[in-house]
Every structure is written in structure tokens, then in C-alpha cells.
Specification:
Order of helices and strands: HEHEHHEEHHHHH
Structural class: alpha/beta
Shape: elongated
Number of strands: 4
Distance between the termini: 15 Å
CATH class of the largest domain: Alpha Beta
CATH architecture of the largest domain: Roll
Oligomer: single chain
Strand order of the largest sheet: 1-2-3-4
Number of domains: 2
Largest sheet: 4 strands, mixed
Strand content: 5-15%
Helix content: 55-70%
Radius of gyration: 27 Å
CATH topology of the largest domain: Diaminopimelate Epimerase, Chain A, domain 1
């Protein structure tokens, strides 16, 4: 009977390990909700809300100083927000639109505002601008900032500091009445081997891991019982 209890303990232990392993590999990261983003209003000198914690202190300091100066000289206010993961069914643009309306509820509050939001899980970016801003920062330029200026350094190693720095430089130039410097020039380089896993490869690895754990669980169940049966027959 002591051997049977030992087998049952082993089965229970492996079952617990299996359950924990499944939980670790399937539990999604907590999404960032609108209500979790600090409230900002027009005229308030809050230029960066880095919820995803992807920017260095020096980058934040440089951008804050630059945007503060822009606001004083032109009245145009640019704000950056980073989040970690979107809620199910939410897109980065719907999140941006909702946050823009929450922060700036009336047309008078929205008129000089530019809001750019980045989700660091998908590296997708949304933008929303006020009526007066659109006269200078056209939708074409705004979409180029989030579709070309920022994604270029993100594609080259998730360089968030450079992405936001480049976006700041371009936005400030345009909103200050200077010529649009345009998106960065992309220089083609020979393709090198990937050092990261695609989503489908990650899923495959997770599936393989689960199969291995299940196999160990079955082995831990069958082998001790078979061994006990063999000993019983020897008697």
C-alpha cells in the first residue's frame, strides 16, 4: 500500500506542475484600460505618459523640454502615450480616439491638440489631432509620422527612444511652420537571420511543451502502476 501511496503522490505532484505550466503559458498580460491612463487636460504640461515603460529618463526629459517650448511658442500641444496591450476588440486608433475625447471633451479644448498613442505589444500607433492642428499638420503628414517615421526604428530592434525622438523632431518642425522633413530614408540592407520567434513559432513551441508535460504525466502514471503490478505478480 505504501508503494501505491507513493505513486499517487507522484501523480498529484506532476498534475500540479502541469496545471502551473499551462497557466504560465496561457495567461494573458493585463491590458491597459482608458481609466488607467492619468487624466490630462489642455494647458497642463504633461507631455508623456509612459505606461509601457519603454522610454529612458533622458529621452523623456528631452521630449518634454522640446514640447514645452513648442507649446509656449505656438500654442500647439503634442502628447505621447505608451500602453502595454489593448483590451480585446480594441484597436490602437479606437483607444486613441477615446482617450482624446476623454482628455479634451469640447472642440475648444481639442483645437490645438495632437495625441499619439503606441501599444508596445503590437507596436501599432494611433494619432488624433484638433481642428487648428489639421490646418498645419495634415492627416497625410500625421499618418506618415505614425506609419513611417516611428515604425522605422521600431522595425530595427524596437528602438522606442529613437522612434519618439524622431517623431518629436518632425512634429515640432511642421507645427512651428517649417518645411516637413519627411519620413526617414530607409537604406536597404542584406537580410540576416532572425533572432526572434514569429507568433506561429511561439505557438508551436508552447504546444510542444504541453505535449511533453502530458507525456511525462502519462509516464508517471503508467510506469509506477506497471511496476507495482509486476511486483505483485512476482509474489
Amino acid at each position: 500500500m505504501s508503494y501505491i501511496r507513493y505513486c499517487l503522490r507522484q501523480i498529484l505532484l506532476l498534475s500540479i506542475v502541469f496545471a502551473i505550466s499551462i497557466g504560465i503559458f496561457t495567461l494573458p498580460a493585463q491590458a491597459t484600460a482608458i481609466y488607467e491612463v492619468p487624466v490630462v487636460s489642455a494647458g497642463v504640461p504633461t507631455w508623456i505618459v509612459d505606461k509601457a515603460d519603454v522610454l529612458s529618463l533622458s529621452t523623456k526629459g528631452n521630449i518634454k523640454g522640446t514640447l514645452e517650448q513648442l507649446a509656449k511658442q505656438t500654442g500647439k500641444e503634442v502628447r505621447f502615450v505608451t500602453i502595454h496591450r489593448l483590451d480585446y476588440g480594441e484597436t490602437i486608433q479606437t483607444f486613441t480616439d477615446k482617450l482624446f475625447k476623454k482628455w479634451f471633451a469640447t472642440p475648444a479644448e481639442q483645437v490645438n491638440q495632437t495625441l499619439i498613442v503606441l501599444d508596445n505589444v503590437t507596436n501599432t500607433i494611433g494619432v488624433q489631432t484638433g481642428a487648428d492642428v489639421k490646418l498645419i499638420l495634415t492627416d497625410a503628414i500625421a499618418n506618415s509620422v505614425i506609419g513611417e517615421t516611428m515604425p522605422t526604428p521600431l522595425r530595427n530592434g524596437n528602438k522606442y527612444n529613437q522612434a519618439f525622438g524622431d517623431a518629436t523632431d518632425r512634429l515640432v518642425a511642421v507645427l512651428s511652420g517649417q518645411a516637413d522633413p519627411g519620413p526617414p530614408k530607409v537604406i536597404s540592407t542584406p537580410e540576416v537571420g532572425r533572432t526572434y520567434l514569429k507568433a506561429e513559432e511561439t505557438d508551436a513551441n508552447r504546444t510542444n511543451f504541453i505535449i511533453i508535460v502530458i507525456g511525462l504525466l502519462i509516464a508517471a502514471t503508467v510506469i509506477p502502476m506497471a511496476t507495482w503490478w509486476w511486483y505483485q505478480n512476482q509474489d
